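Field: COMPLEX_INPUT
Field: COMPONENT_COUNT = two
Field: RESIDUE_TOTAL = 718
Field: MODE = joint
Values follow.
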Amino acid sequence: MSSLAERMARLIVHGEHPYNAEPPLSRLRASYRTPAGDFYVRSHGDLPEIDAATWRLSVDDKLLGPLDLSLADLRARFPEATVTATMQCAGNRRADMRAVAPVSGDPWDAGAIGTADWTGVRLGDVLRAAGVTPGADLHVAFESHDVVEGRPYGVSIPLAKALADETLLAFAMNGAPLLPEHGFPARAVVPGFAGVRSPKWLRRITVQDHPSDNPMQADDYKLFPPDVTAETADPAEGHTIETMPLNAAICEPPRGARLEAGDTPVRGYAIAGDRAVVRVDVSGDGGRSWRQATLEHEAGAPFAWTFWEIVLDLPPGEHELAVRAWDSAGQTQPALPDDTWNFKGYLSASWHRVRVEVA
Amino acid sequence: MSSLAERMARLIVHGEHPYNAEPPLSRLRASYRTPAGDFYVRSHGDLPEIDAATWRLSVDDKLLGPLDLSLADLRARFPEATVTATMQCAGNRRADMRAVAPVSGDPWDAGAIGTADWTGVRLGDVLRAAGVTPGADLHVAFESHDVVEGRPYGVSIPLAKALADETLLAFAMNGAPLLPEHGFPARAVVPGFAGVRSPKWLRRITVQDHPSDNPMQADDYKLFPPDVTAETADPAEGHTIETMPLNAAICEPPRGARLEAGDTPVRGYAIAGDRAVVRVDVSGDGGRSWRQATLEHEAGAPFAWTFWEIVLDLPPGEHELAVRAWDSAGQTQPALPDDTWNFKGYLSASWHRVRVEVA
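Field: COMPLEX_OUTPUT
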């Protein structure tokens, strides 16, 4: 295994403490399953160092009392499950919003996303073993080993999502144990939801009748209207970001590329939260005309991204390439970053635009 | 019961043969449940006249052979179910697309939508009684008594949706038997899907391994890219419209209203297919600034629309009011009708804009 420092050197690092980094887009587009070392990293505190041999997961249910499970217990008691799913930061493509007005947080390009085979056990199997039964308005709260402003990282998801087949406690990514920066020894994987709801370095799971009161859940990762500012924001009024909206990005050619005239392959990804991507339109003229890309999607992986590709014949001059996706509900994306701007810079999902110059 | 002619006189009639009509928007917004007589009517052939006493529904399963059910059989054998759901035509708001370029079909304003309490039996209960079990890539095909270009009306839906709790064989609308124009004596109600998939005047249901090959399913109600025309369209390449996209409309004040200066109530609806509407933004200046409307949504009715209301203080002059909704995935609508234009005029779902003049 490479060292963390070696892996950091391969990424675009937005910050070291906490460590936040994304891959260059051409490398992101090189493989449907993102190698763990190319996978974006979003952390909110220092990376915890955990001994897998002594690690325990505690599962609390108010009625039945706690379970206390080692990695060996989890593997022995529950069937192994693998889900191919895309993980995406709520701040992916935030950089595009900065052209409208300042936003808080790291200026992620379109690389705060990746897809992996996640292997572990179904969270629902563990919860059912703890005596949990489906119930409206119940929430599954996670607490982790990383510390954010003096408190353990904590978030929650609705019980229905926790019991869904696709939601895992994962030990492995693409067939290998999780890397330290991806949550070793165990993390939640909540496909379709923003990455913030898939906590790494898990230590406790609690079923309760209210969302987590941890600031990460109660205050952060909320979507606000465009007229709300850091000063006026009331977290209780913001929308809790869970399922992510329709999005698409151009990974090749890169922004500002100088190309030869003639056939230019244009490639990228698209993703639709809990829906399917059914069409991807690509424009060589800033959205005045569109052509349809060829789609590549893994069968049986409804929560994984769709890769797309098209060859455009670009004449000499400056061009704005643009992409927009359509989902299975016939929904498409807004055209301008202004249309989704919010002061936190979340859910940046307007047409992705890349200017290139053809010689 | 009023006569059909009396009910027609209350609606904006786009055509009499087939009969297509929608209510004025202010009356649509007057009640969360749309009175049957105010409910839009979309038909593709003449209205069938059916004797409820002799009506039979045949349910075919290739393995188990047919069931043949009277209304009394359906009522006796299966528990009654009521679902509050919105029905919407795929062509709702088509008129807004005509400003971009010509489109085929009737020029529906924003009234090709309505909400009702639908009462009947669960389609899933009937299918299970016929021996149907869940299976990937199976389809439930419907055939009806109305005739379109010499063939019975026919469409299909995926089996998973047919087995879902919300999908009904409905006999009643808002507590009264279906009106003739709404499918008497029985229709399908497939909440969240375009109205075309909720056939009226049912006569046969077949479970099969392919979608219906009826032209209504195979050729019509497909979403095409903006560069495709009636001449170049290949139905096999279009997206089959099922779940409807996020949409919102201003119902009051009406387009072109002349208002007094001061507080102006602005009211309308929003709907998000199989998701929830979480926010509605309203603009008094064509989208340069936005305020958030108050939302009204019926508890326990995930497939029903959301009503919204806001009071704007409009100064004298001409104003473009606009509305856009946000769904539970943080998705919003495109700004311009150009962004969703297609030659069939389906899924018109850009910001709804209404020009008014304040004295």
